[in-house]
Amino acid sequence: IHPCISLVVHVLCWIMNIVIGQQCLYIYNYHPSGHADKEVMAATVLTSLSTSPMVLQPSSAPTGNTARGWKEVLSASYSSSTSGNWSWDNSDQSVPSTPSPPLSNENSKNFLLSSNSDDISEDIHESTHFMFDDPIPRKRKNSMKVMFKCLWKNCEKVLSTSSGIQRHIRTVHLGRNSDSDYSDGEEDFYYSEIEVNMDSLTEGLSSLTPTSPTTVAPPPVFPSPLFDSHAPTLLSQSAPSTLCHIRTDHAYQGPVNPVRTVTTVERRLPGLNVLTLPSYPSPRKPRGDAKKCRKVYGMEKKDMWCTACRWKKACQRFTD
DNA sequence: GGTGCCGGGGC
DNA sequence: GCCCCGGCACC
Question: Are residues A24 and A164 in the same domain?
């Protein structure tokens, strides 16, 4: 997905969450050949928060005038804000016709990183860009990372890539061949997409002094004992601003014209305890009030600056 | 927009 | 190690 399109969709969903307190569901159809950015078709529907927070099924599909109204609004938005790659798909692809995801509320509440981290480290290198990532991520710009959590019942598997979680589901839950990505078109992948705040998590590890809650999720490479034994202590009882991506992936691949439907649900879940850690101030220390060489001597007397200032390092002459 | 300085790279 | 600089956060 083009970053601009992704941004538009996120903003629209965010607005809907604010305005009507309902979750936003947006669906992508893309070719399994990896050309999702070019072949994306999108539809957006709303589902009610009163339904099971993690279950996506026909019964939770939008009903009534409200949903229809939003659908119309969003349709207009898409047609006006995109270059035509987006359109409404009125087929039943917006609502999975396959069985409900095999998860439970209990499962969703007790979110812990799988103790098996083999696949995590294995998938790190291929984890980078799924659908929403910038082609060229900027350094230090955003420490959020997307993780994927298996939603099958009693499975807490968390992997760093969608392909990894799909492979996990295919092999572990569907009992299929682990060596290939072959799909017979009747696979249901239920897994959640979770944003991980690497900064907060890292800081949370060094200091567990709680301040205000923020949203994080498991990192890809941290040792699992933290999440197995300590995670409950880090969980917030209420996570009012918890942001959780839930991705339900259905593969309907026909022999001639394979179409793959990915359903993504972005929602704010008031009661979902998704490994919530306190937020901490930026590790970057605040700027001191002391004048540094640059201000004291000015650019014209740069030769009088301390070495560090000349090298754009922390001033050694006028320390805070 | 100016400043401080981290992170990274060239030599 | 020295030096430079892109880029970011802070002011």
Answer: yes
Which nucleotide across the nucleic acid strands is nearest to A292, CA versus C1'? B4
How do residues A60-114 score in pLDDT, each as one tens digit? 333 334 333 343 333 333 333 333 333 333 333 333 333 344 443 434 333 334 4
Tokens of A59: 């019964």
Question: Quick check: A139 CB within 7 A of strand C?
Answer: yes
Determine the nucleotide nearest to A320 by Cα–C1' distance: B4
pLDDT digits (tens, 9 = 90+) for A14-61: 765 555 444 433 333 333 343 333 333 333 333 333 333 333 333 333
Please name which of A99, A93, A84, A80 lies closest in space to residue A44, comparing C-alpha atoms: A93
Residue A56 token pair: 């996506």
In terms of domains, do A275 and A298 share one?
Answer: no
Same domain, A271 and A128: yes
Same domain, yes or no: A82 and A114: yes
Examine the domain organization and report whether A267 and A295 are in the same domain: no
The number of distinct structural domains making up chain A is 2
Phi-psi region of A275 (alpha: psi -120 to 50; beta: other; left: phi over 0): left
Q: Which of A170, A189, A199 is nearest to A252 (CA)?
A: A189
Q: What range defines the domain where residue A270 resides? A: 3-279
Q: Establish whether the CB of A285 is closer than 7 Å to any nucleic acid atom in strand C.
A: no
